[in-house]
Design goal:
Layout lengths: L3 E7 L2 E8 L8 E5 L7 H12 L3 E5 L16 H13 L2 H15 L7 E6 L1 H12 L5 E4 L18 E6 L7 H11 L5 E6 L16 H19 L1
Parallel strand pairs: 3-4, 3-5, 5-6, 6-7, 7-8
Antiparallel strand pairs: 1-2, 2-4
Length: 230
């Protein structure tokens, strides 16, 4: 798959996004929500992978308000420092506004329904996307700080799937239990737990990447989207 960079117009300004389409040229849409490293090769490859599964996939540059075009890796201490600095400056609620604009930009390119999937920071944003946007189905991988936004869950009216890593270094066990307890009674929410895995188990090349578990979670995600976006 090969993608292209497009411009997304939001209420607060324009920003870029990496767009990848399936061979058919159209299909359901998926907004791919970045980690703290920007729209880097990992995110572009994921966007291409979702396109290979039959989705029109678009990964927006959510750090544009801080610095457009961030593209770093998880391979050096300096890049981790930069990533956490960006994470600290990032306004989550404005990010949700930008994801809403991305959904609106993507929808005319699709067969009608648009979902969202996010990782790490994007995992939290995928949860909030389910709470506050027109996303038809959302999936979050090892989302951080969801336990601090459980009041938002009353806005969840469409399917949401969360993948929780049991040994997540950024989401301690008590936070995981808060999320599970806080969402247990919402019939729209499905939670899968991976007790032996750490944060970012689905990031290829990452320190905690686990192909077997990543394949299992990704299979669940694709089937979830096929069911709710098809």
């Amino acid at each position: 798959m090969s993608g292209e960079t497009i411009t997304i117009k939001g209420p607060d300004g324009s920003f870029s996004g990496y767009l990848s389409k399936p061979k058919s040229g159209t299909g359901p849409g998926i907004v791919v929500i970045q980690e703290i490293f920007g729209v880097n090769k990992v995110m572009r490859d994921l966007t291409d992978w979702y396109a290979s599964q039959g989705f029109v996939a678009l990964c927006p540059d959510l750090f544009w308000r801080i610095e457009p075009g961030i593209d770093i890796t998880d391979q050096t201490e300096e890049e981790w420092k930069q990533a956490f600095d960006l994470f600290g400056k990032f306004d989550v609620d404005k990010g949700i506004v930008d994801i809403g604009a991305t959904i609106d930009t993507l929808r005319p390119m699709t067969t009608g329904k648009v979902g969202a999937v996010g990782y790490c920071l994007g995992g939290q944003l995928a949860y909030l996307t389910a709470c506050h946007t027109s996303s038809d189905a959302s999936v979050g991988y090892y989302g951080v700080n969801i336990q601090n936004r459980l009041d938002d869950a009353k806005g969840i009216k469409k399917p949401l799937m969360l993948h929780i890593a049991g040994k997540d270094e950024f989401v301690p066990p008590e936070a995981q239990e808060q999320v599970v307890a806080g969402l247990r009674d919402n019939s729209h929410v499905t939670i899968h737990r991976y007790p032996d895995n750490d944060h970012a188990f689905a990031r290829p090349g990452g320190a905690h990447y686990d192909k077997k578990t990543a394949d299992e979670a990704n299979d669940r995600t694709v089937k979830f989207f096929q069911r709710h976006l098809g």
